[in-house]
Amino acid sequence: MQTIDLLRYLGNYVTQLSPTGYTLPAFPWFVYQTIGGAVSTGSHGSSLAWGSLSNQLLGVTMVLANGTLRTFTPETDPFLMRAVRVAVGQLGIITNLRFRLIKEQPVQRFLQSLSSSSFLKLMETAQQQYTSNQTMPSWLNETEFFWITQDSEFLMVSCTRGDVSSPETRHEVLASFNMPDNTTMYNTSWQLLQDPVLNCLDALPLNHSAHFGPDGLGALAQDYTGALLNTFINAPLPQLIISTYSNNSATLKAGQAVEAAEVLKPLVAELSFHEGSDGHERRRSLQKLHDQQLTVKNRRLFQTSAATARQRVMQADSDDGDASHSATENATGGYFEHDHGGITNASNGDPYAGLLSMDEAVALGNNWDIPPKKDALAYYAAPNMAEALISISRAGVLSIASNNTPEAHESYLYQPDALLDNIRTVRYDQYEVAVPVSTMGDCFKGLLDMVYEGDIDSLNETQKAKVKGFRTAPLIRVLGQEDGLLAYTGDVPRIFVNVEDYIFYNAGEQINTAFKAVMAHLRSSPACGNTGLEGAGGRLHWGKAGWPDAGCWHGDKEYPHTWCDFGCAKMYLDPTNKFADSAPDRWTWEGVDLASCCSMDKGFLREKAGCSCNVKHERNVSSCPPSPYYTNR
Ligand SMILES: Cc1cc2nc3c(=O)[nH]c(=O)nc-3n(C[C@H](O)[C@H](O)[C@H](O)COP(=O)(O)OP(=O)(O)OC[C@H]3O[C@@H](n4cnc5c(N)ncnc54)[C@H](O)[C@@H]3O)c2cc1C
């Protein structure tokens, strides 16, 4: 598979008029999803103004079920364009997408720590504003929150663009942007990496000893977070588990996780030692990690030109023997390719002869295979690893979201290279629920009361034990109203809660009950929405987990205002259901007379006599499992 990192490609794309490249105005975290998949599922970042990727589309070209190629735009097909924006693969195969791009610009990022009650107050204030005048507070636009469950803390990341209308704010953003000579991303990062490594180590924000400055350390801290993950979390622990269990497998059956937790205690203690407040010790141990992992060296190789990279590799070869080979291998696995088919050709026995320049590599893409998943990793499920892993997750947030004013495509949060392998290879599921802003304060109040039971700010041990369903910090983002028929925010703006389950797969398919209780609240509490199987709860992300058992997700109840409009589009574009997927129970309009009730340009004629969007379902609430309506997790 050949992939192009779209954001870096655009960031590197320079014209005479715009020497700073381009960017998408708002985007999701990209972890090798395809652009077709991300658009088809309404994937999003956090933006009230620009919305999801689907909302930013100017045009879509698809191969239709009848084999023809057709381009949709809002101008040529006002109704069908609303259908194809979020089509979940049901209407055709996307071959071309047209987006609005904007010029690169500085975006000021600001990170602050909130107690749960302060976070709740913000949510309640925003809810109140929306219900009184249907507007959202400007501080919420582009803001993301990370919920540090074990600490009852919310990390709030706000972004301010260099093109905001207020001249004072604009000036502040631009003044804080330390513009390098050439503002493509690579040079910006290269400059950052020139900082002497040791001067930066004290600023690595780990656990409670974290501090937020000085600015601009985000990229560097990522290397250490990555090293920490690879050294303490990913490398020795699985080996320990494997040697502990005689069957030579890291897969644990139910109940074994507790036993494993005991085995892991000394290592957790060691981890705490490295997170201690003694700056000297921390510096020493992290320097050791750095030496082992060579991550900074690799980043330097990634982020300079091919010629310089090659020179550095040669230099490293003569400087430090074996270590340089690992640097070379990593470099070739990153942006420089020399021995994978199709991109470059190595020649004359010189292994570095075919290295591409950064621009070429970004433009042509990289060869990439889907990495195999690891075996189950028992320590993810071990109860006493919860706190350590959330601390790692918190450190990761602090490193990617530190106060800074980089260019837009670097400032909005993305998954750093140092952490990608972990995300791709560890077994977990991502779930996301979209809650209307009109009740978001009530929804979070119910959630925090349920999870913590009692004082939501100072947790005792019993309360902490209750949040052990999480191994990473839940992520909270917002989207403004959109007009896609199956867009999450077709009715009102929504706030999105993304939660990840690391326990199910890593504990021998043991149900993560604390996690499931959170999903149940989000999916069926009247405070979290007024759509769904029981007329309450928030909407599920099309591209994530949490789908109810077959027959227990009813489109007409989840999307009561647009489900039959989408049915009309399906009838016109794919009348024989050629694009049926593995969940046919979802895509049903049984009992609705689409043939008589659809108009090619208006959709479902709900005013017409005999046309109501009441779909017949084989199962109903009484025959489905209780909220969150699935039994397989
Ligand atoms: C680590 C990680 C981080 C993520 N971060 C975010 C995030 O920040 N925000 C967010 O909203 N989501 C996020 N997601 C969810 C992700 O964007 C969606 O799951 C996306 O659909 C995955 O893309 P894919 O290419 O793997 O699609 P697939 O899983 O292959 O496909 C998803 C759907 O799109 C359809 N589809 C795919 N390609 C086409 C095409 N060319 N034409 C028509 N239909 C097509 C498929 O039929 C299917 O129904 C994340 C996912 C992961 C794993």
From TrEMBL:
<dbReference type="InterPro" id="IPR006094">
    <property type="entry name" value="Oxid_FAD_bind_N"/>
</dbReference>
<dbReference type="GO" id="GO:0071949">
    <property type="term" value="F:FAD binding"/>
</dbReference>
<dbReference type="InterPro" id="IPR016166">
    <property type="entry name" value="FAD-bd_PCMH"/>
</dbReference>
<dbReference type="GO" id="GO:0016899">
    <property type="term" value="F:oxidoreductase activity, acting on the CH-OH group of donors, oxygen as acceptor"/>
</dbReference>
<dbReference type="InterPro" id="IPR010031">
    <property type="entry name" value="FAD_lactone_oxidase-like"/>
</dbReference>
<protein>
    <recommendedName>
        <fullName>FAD-binding PCMH-type domain-containing protein</fullName>
    </recommendedName>
</protein>
<dbReference type="InterPro" id="IPR036318">
    <property type="entry name" value="FAD-bd_PCMH-like_sf"/>
</dbReference>
<feature type="domain" description="FAD-binding PCMH-type">
    <location>
        <begin position="1"/>
        <end position="104"/>
    </location>
</feature>
<dbReference type="InterPro" id="IPR016169">
    <property type="entry name" value="FAD-bd_PCMH_sub2"/>
</dbReference>
<dbReference type="Pfam" id="PF01565">
    <property type="entry name" value="FAD_binding_4"/>
</dbReference>
